[in-house]
Amino acid sequence: MFLVWTLLSLLLLMVLLLAVPLEWGFQVRLGENHRSAESRIVWLFGLVRFRLNNGTGGRNKPKPPRRPRTPKPKRRRGSPMAVVSVDGFIGRVLTLARRVLGAIHIQQLDIQGRMGLGDPADTGRLWSVVGPVTAILASPRVTRIHFEPDFSDPVLDLQGNGRIRLVPLRLIGLVLGFLLSPTTVRAFMAMRSGS
């Protein structure tokens, strides 16, 4: 009986810890001569802090040459496109995406950038996709997103920072609910069988 109470206490403690909000802050700079990224995670009301830095300050080092791959024996795999044929799966995926985005609270988001492909026609096509997306993302009052097209030069210059808050228990519940739903199980079985 003592073992059961101990396991229940540990489970309750884990649920309580996962119910505490987690805050993720980031700062990114991506330019022609400078790439850096800094990320920090604050949890348990500031008692637990993680900091990740990836600042190169200059051009990236060249990658070492890859070793040639040895061909592996082919295994019969199921078709990932078989999940599309399962009734209701696409709706479940869209519902999951909407709920996950609803569970993430943006406290502050500031992104500024300049992009161009060197050809005015290609840049215009790219901008026809990026422009509306930035307008949708900039709709909350706490976000400020500003992108400018550059029709003459190929360029990608991006800098941004932000703070996002989420409750891990809520995200875990959403993902588990999606994975254990009968529709997802049917889609997984259809993908495995390839039909």
Automatic annotation (TrEMBL):
The chain crosses the membrane at residues 171-189. InterPro entries: DUF2953. It comes from the Bacteria. Keywords: Membrane, Transmembrane, Transmembrane helix. Residues 55-80 are annotated as: Disordered. Residues 60-78 have a biased composition (Basic residues). This is DUF2953 domain-containing protein. It comes from Saccharospirillum salsuginis.
